[in-house]
């Protein structure tokens, strides 16, 4: 163990198993956007339903509840916290039971609260995503991933669309070229607002510091101190690799406690764009 490194924590297998079971039993299928079905005997969610929501195998989850599973990773614990609609205190408790140091509260922008998750769970058939103040996608529905790409697959600085906009041409290729200048200004402006509000140790400030020496275009925009361009415009054009340009309306819901934004993409009923969104929702199921 290096100097300054926190000592490892022991995993409380019995405590973790009991906590997971109780939290699972406290949720109903409707709470997480699942159909109830007939002749349901299980109190709360089934183990396989939790596993599906988390993205792990049913066997893996079952072993955790039977006190014989391996140490879950931080990513797996974060996914469990979202699936079980845990509060921030409950999330920290989950990490500690699993032998992991709970994420620092300064990084609470990574945790989606139960209220926001209840809304997202009811949008399973709609392109919707939750984004934090640093431009990192915390959750996507299947149709959203089909529309804009799988943002959850990125790691490190690449998690932020603001960072990828200036470093990854594939990110810019999602949008018509004539809209690029606006998006560049919007991403930069939102990042500056977040860095100013959350301080020099924030995720937004870290991303800005990483971009300044490697992206002259970002540096130029950053030094303009322009915070007027909006990232979440109501009307937006997306360039899908197979369906071409799709014009959508981007409705937003802000959680003021976490500065997280829920983005919901819709299109005018009866329009070609509406048909395209319907196609994406169908293939993402």
From TrEMBL:
Residues 43-91 form the HTH cro/C1-type domain. It comes from the Bacteria. SMART domains: HTH_XRE. GO terms for molecular function: DNA binding. InterPro entries: Cro/C1-type_HTH (IPR001387), Lambda_DNA-bd_dom_sf (IPR010982), MLTR_LBD (IPR041413). Transmembrane segments: none annotated. Signal peptide: none annotated. It holds the Pfam family HTH_31. PANTHER family: BLL4672 PROTEIN, BLL4672 PROTEIN-RELATED. This is Helix-turn-helix domain-containing protein.
């Amino acid at each position: 163990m290096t100097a300054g490194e926190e000592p490892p924590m022991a995993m409380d297998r019995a405590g973790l198993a009991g906590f997971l079971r109780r939290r699972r039993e406290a949720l109903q299928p409707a709470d997480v956007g699942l159909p109830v079905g007939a002749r349901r005997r299980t109190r709360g969610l089934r183990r396989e339903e939790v596993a599906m929501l988390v993205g792990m195998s049913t066997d893996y989850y079952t072993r955790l509840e039977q006190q014989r599973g391996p140490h879950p990773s931080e990513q797996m614990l974060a996914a469990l916290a979202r699936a079980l609609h845990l509060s921030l205190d409950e999330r920290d408790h989950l990490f500690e039971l699993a032998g992991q140091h709970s994420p620092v509260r300064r990084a609470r922008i990574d945790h989606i609260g139960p209220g926001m998750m209840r809304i997202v769970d009811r949008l399973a058939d709609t392109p919707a995503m939750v984004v934090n103040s640093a431009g990192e996608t915390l959750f996507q529905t299947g149709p959203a991933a089909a529309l804009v790409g799988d943002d959850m697959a990125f790691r490190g600085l690449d998690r932020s669309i603001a960072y990828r906009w200036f470093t990854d041409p594939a990110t810019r290729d999602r949008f018509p070229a004539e809209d690029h200048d606006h998006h560049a200004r919007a991403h930069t402006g939102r990042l500056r607002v977040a860095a100013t509000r959350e301080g020099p140790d924030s995720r937004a400030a870290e991303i800005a510091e990483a971009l300044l020496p490697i992206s002259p275009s970002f540096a130029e925009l950053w030094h303009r101190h322009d915070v007027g361009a909006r990232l979440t415009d109501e009307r937006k054009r997306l360039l899908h690799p197979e369906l071409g340009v799709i014009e959508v309306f981007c409705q937003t819901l802000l959680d003021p406690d976490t500065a997280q934004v829920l983005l919901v993409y819709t299109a005018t009923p009866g329009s070609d764009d509406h048909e395209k969104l319907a196609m994406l929702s169908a293939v993402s199921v």
